[in-house]
Design brief:
Shape: elongated
GO molecular function, one term: metal ion binding
Order of helices and strands: HEHEEEHEHEHHHEEEEEEHHEEEEEEEE
CATH class of the largest domain: Alpha Beta
Protein name: Peptidase M24
Distance between the termini: 52 Å
Number of helices: 9
Helix content: 25-40%
Strand order of the largest sheet: 4-3-2-1-5-6
Number of domains: 2
Number of strands: 20
CATH topology of the largest domain: Creatine Amidinohydrolase
Keywords: Hydrolase, Metal-binding
CATH architecture of the largest domain: Alpha-Beta Complex
Bound molecules: manganese (II) ion
Strand content: 15-25%
InterPro entries: Creatin/AminoP/Spt16_N, Creatinase/aminopeptidase-like, Creatinase_N, Pept_M24, Pept_M24_MAP, Peptidase_M24B, Peptidase_M24B_aminopep-P_CS
Length: 358
Amino acid sequence: MNQERLNVVLREMEKQNIPQIVVSDPASIFYLTGKWIHPGERMLALYLNVNGDKRLFINELFPVHEDLGVEKVIFNDTQDAVEILSRYVEAGKPLGVDKNWPARFLLRLMELKSNCKFVIGSNIIDRVRMRKDPREIELMRQSSRINDLAVGKLIELIPQKYTEKKMGQILLEIYEELGAEGCSFDPIIAYGANAADPHHTPGNFTVREGDCVIIDIGCVKDSYCSDITRTVFYKKVSDEAAKIYNIVLEANKRAIDTVKPGVRFCDIDAAARNYIEKAGYGKYFTHRTGHSIGIEVHELGDVSAANTDRVEPGMIFSIEPGIYIPGIVGVRIEDLVVVTEDGCEVLTGYDKNLTVIE
Ligand SMILES: [Mn+2]
């Protein structure tokens, strides 16, 4: 167990008056133990109590041989895993459970521990995970560095006129060569009008003269995720598309300039959104400005109008405004930033000036 992180989690549990939690998210278990366990549909749970009690419940099919600094309770497929877990849960006390814990486990535990008050417990660890420590920040830098190289290689390949789908497949090889573990999400490669769909699935489309090309990709390196979006144009760019590009670019820069400790997430969103609205494209900026990122590509902490939380040093999130004109063009420019003591450091290094590929 990472004692430092565990202590912060236990303090946060006391602060939120949740004396015991069942952690089931493999990413949070990795965060605390340093070990990835992917149990599929089997139960995996790390029980934590502010009184110091802690146990890892794990199916014997996923043996952990090393000492993780936490007592293991092993069960097999013929046993009632939730019943075993329930024996260790303190009766009559609030119990926090993960936001994604399957109902088949949760409902059974609620039945067995009907005198416990069940609450969402994952906010505790998710909040702690928002503030990255120096080691994590360095891993995020490395992941972004690889991603910068990868996006550059893909942009160089645009004149080869591969389909969007093929570009996604080539990206996997690029990541492999660069030493990444894989993609942090399904890559988005979109040509022309396809780029107007922010979550376009790459298909059998090829690039045509005058198309915008959105490349939104991320890798996982040493368990930390990167995420970048660049939009370039093939052969030529219309005046309208160039205008839209520069509006998005300015919105991206204005949002980044806003980032410093104490500023609210919604203020960062507003910096980008107000600029795009004033330019007359407000209704075409259809999504939040960004999301937190770390061990998972989307973590707690939206950069959105609805999030009034204040940013703190160590937090890492994306700034990715976009303008999408259905049937015509889409532009999105995404960087990752880490909040520093007096501003932010941009983790993404790839050039973002208007580029026309020959
Ligand atoms: Mn993103």
